């Protein structure tokens, strides 16, 4: 059964005349008659009572017409909704992001974007790295804000922000008064690490590997806020970005002497997937930003 057959059926049912219907559809009468006969054959019942070129819906046709009209209305609504969702001025952008980024980066980014695109809406999903990666790969998100090390071959990537990493200790720790520290000085210190589902873990591991220094975690936390809490309780030290949500009272942030210790955050999407006009315009906006989040 084809959509055009249903459109032809509704036109004939409303006009109840084959010649008038063929003119309204800009179709030859034999072609229209064939389409209606084919539809009746597929359904296994006649839909019209025929008297020359005049046709009148029988009880099967009346029954079928109710459902066809409902289906056509639903298709129209579905088409309209797709247009609204993808429209760059009024569309919806499905965006997923790491939990910690919901404290500052993501709300700031959305607020600034909606100042110039007030009718665009965001459908937001936050979670661990594994959660939001799955969301993007299943096509449930258009875009994802995460750390650089989660980039893969099928992904496109734009840097949004680069944050310096610090060695973080409690205010009672012997290192608390140091103006800077080398990572080698952390040898033997209880270290509060991260589990694999946190976006920062890959960054930290990559940096440690480049220095040739190995650190064994005493604790592995689920998220950055928990890491900060463990440090504040005097249970160990760690390496963290200085972002909102982590600056607890009692923590001391010490610059790292080695170079290259930064956390790069960016916008990611699948280059092998459809990207709506609304999402494309947001990508263009992010491309126009400097690494500190301001417009270049």
From TrEMBL:
Sorted alphabetically, the keyword list is: DNA-binding, Transcription, Transcription regulation
Q: InterPro entries per the record?
A: HTH-type_LysR_regulators (IPR050950), LysR_HTH_N (IPR000847), LysR_subst-bd (IPR005119), WH-like_DNA-bd_sf (IPR036388), WH_DNA-bd_sf (IPR036390)
Q: Which GO terms describe its cellular component?
A: cytosol
Which Gene Ontology MF annotations are present? DNA binding; DNA-binding transcription factor activity
At the top level, the lineage of the source is Bacteria
Query: HTH lysR-type domain: from which residue to which, for each copy?
Result: 1-58
The record's annotation in Pfam families points to: HTH_1 (PF00126), LysR_substrate (PF03466)
Protein family membership:
Belongs to the LysR transcriptional regulatory family.
Record-linked PANTHER family: HTH-TYPE TRANSCRIPTIONAL REGULATOR BSDA (PTHR30419:SF28), HTH-TYPE TRANSCRIPTIONAL REGULATOR YBHD (PTHR30419)
Instruction: Please state what the protein is called.
Output: LysR family transcriptional regulator
What are the leading ranks of the lineage? Bacteria, Bacillati, Bacillota, Bacilli, Bacillales
């Amino acid at each position: 059964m084809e959509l055009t057959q249903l459109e032809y059926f509704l036109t004939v049912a409303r006009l109840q005349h084959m010649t008038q219907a063929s003119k309204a559809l800009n179709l030859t009468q034999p072609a229209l008659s064939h389409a209606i006969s084919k539809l009746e054959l597929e359904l296994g019942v006649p839909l019209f009572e025929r008297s020359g070129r005049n046709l009148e819906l029988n009880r099967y046709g009346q029954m079928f017409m109710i459902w066809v009209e409902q289906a056509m209305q639903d298709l129209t609504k579905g088409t309209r909704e797709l247009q609204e969702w993808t429209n760059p001025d009024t569309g919806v952008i499905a965006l997923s992001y790491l939990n910690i980024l919901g404290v500052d980066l993501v709300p700031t980014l959305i607020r600034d974007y909606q100042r110039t695109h007030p009718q665009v809406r965001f459908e937001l999903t936050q979670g661990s790295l594994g959660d939001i990666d799955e969301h993007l790969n299943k096509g449930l998100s258009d875009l994802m804000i995460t750390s650089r090390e989660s980039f893969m071959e099928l992904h496109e990537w734009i840097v949004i922000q680069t944050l310096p990493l610090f060695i973080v200790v409690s205010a009672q720790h012997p290192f608390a008064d140091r103006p800077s520290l080398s990572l080698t000085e952390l040898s033997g210190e209880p270290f509060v690490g991260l589990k694999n589902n946190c976006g920062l873990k890959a960054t930290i591991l990559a940096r440690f590997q480049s220095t040739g220094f190995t650190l064994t975690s005493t604790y592995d936390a689920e998220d950055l806020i928990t890491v900060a809490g463990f440090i504040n309780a005097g249970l160990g030290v760690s390496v963290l970005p200085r972002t909102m949500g982590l600056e607890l009272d009692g923590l001391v942030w010490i610059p790292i002497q080695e170079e290259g210790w930064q956390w790069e955050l960016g916008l990611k999407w699948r280059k092998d997937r459809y990207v709506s006009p609304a999402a494309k315009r947001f990508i263009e906006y992010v491309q126009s930003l400097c690494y500190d989040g301001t417009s270049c």
